[in-house]
Amino acid sequence: MDILLIGGLWLDGSAWDDVVSALEPLGHRPVPITLPGQGDGSASATLDDQVAAVLAAVDSAAGKPMVVGHSAASTLAWLAADARAEQVAKIALIGGFPAADGAPYADFFEAKDGVMPFPGWGPFEGPDSADLDEEAKRVFASAAIPVPEGVAKGVVRLTDERRFDVPVVVVCPEFTPAQAQAWIDAGDVPELAKAKHLEFVDIDSGHWPMVSKPIELARLLAAAAAEA
User: Fold this and answer.
1) What is the CATH number of domain 2-227?
2) Between the chain's N and C termini, which has fewer beta carbons within 10 Å?
3) In terms of pTM, does the model score above 0.85?
4) Is the dihedral of CA 206, 210, 216, 221 positive or negative?
């Protein structure tokens, strides 16, 4: 199966390199996506541009792919289900949840000169980054790509309720499946509250398992794809 890999904020397709090399021997075709504005040098990219890039990857996949979204890009994966409900076999969300219709995509940190730069490790102290050593943090921060303001502040638009028919697996890194279920039950994740086929899998990592636990993450994704 084709497995489309979408990194979260500040990441390009190379963030998945170690996951790709672990997925290929497991019989899948991993396709890391470098998003407009996050690797192509365009600071003027918009959320619509990123959605278009994801949909282009879905349209060019062999058969029905599994679409994987990490962190904020969980919303991009969900938008793919919304726009291509009949073409997506499954959605995998790693450490993130889809935004609701009408919400901003990822307006989390201060924008400067038209982009939202990586804010440093302060906001991610604790479980998010506890499994990253100082060298891993340095490498991550030095490679982080400022996200265009037009992406971060883009408004999410969802239109097709068939998205709720697409199976979803939530990969839980810095939080537990029980916590994720509690947030959904509390109404904090209205999109997943309506998902008809929802499951959770745990991974013992921080927020970036593609960095700290790529082989384990690849195995989890391969298992999810096999069930699709």
Assistant:
1) 3.40.50.1820
2) C
3) yes
4) positive
